[in-house]
Amino acid sequence: MGAAAFWAAAITVGCMAWSALWSWIPAWLVLFIGLFFVFVGVFAKDDDNKTLFIGVLACMIMMLGMIPDAFAHGVTEGDKGYIQESSGTMLLPFVYLGAKHMMTGYDHLLFLLGVIFFIYRLKEVSIYVTLFAVGHIITLLSGVLLEISVSAYLIDAIIGFSIVYKALDNMGAYQRWFGVQPNTKVATLIFGLFHGLGLASKVLDYKISPEGLVPNLFAFNVGVELGQILALAGILIAMGYWRRFDSFMRHAYTVNTVMMAAGFLLIGYQLTGFFIF
To answer: Most buried residue among 44, 73, 123, 236 by CB atoms closer than 10 A?
Structure first.
């Protein structure tokens, strides 16, 4: 990654820090930074840098509609109020909440995208997805039932790091830097544990009534898995279509660089929130 890409990541992380302090980023600031990326991208000498800055610009545009709720990745007030006012076994509502959380959980989806980015065989995809699912099921159930209290900011920062880690892995960074290739299956399981702990912190936010807790928790987990399957199906269809073109390998490095930048955004935002709030 060149100096231009480094400064792009640094500037966007700075914006996330500002967002954590003020709870929002002014639209004019986002547009100004976006125009800066366009300017640099237009005059870049190679296609990779052009694509990189276009991708970062797209991320900045999406931020206009996501701030502040998406980066907090928490529970919506409507869902929270419904759950807090209800008691007893409510299987379908919790299935819905679990599926909604996974389908709108951009951090989980980015990590899954990184995991399957260079996996072509469906059997291999199922192995990695199963390892990820086992990891987050373990910590989701144990975290809620044992009421393990961990700062949501720290957990989400680790989830952001998982995105950075996988993007660097896809770019072959560890082999170039250290001469070794980490065990990708073990890493997927370990990061699955942290993703599950993040899910548990969101469930604890609901302040669920003890009555019907276990069946509701299992229903939430079923919803998470259903949401993951649906999201994964969409990702696989899109990836399968993209891989048919020669541009896939040409732009794969750039896409993973943008994924890495998104991971750094999440890390910067969550760590700032942890130290400030």
So the answer is: 73
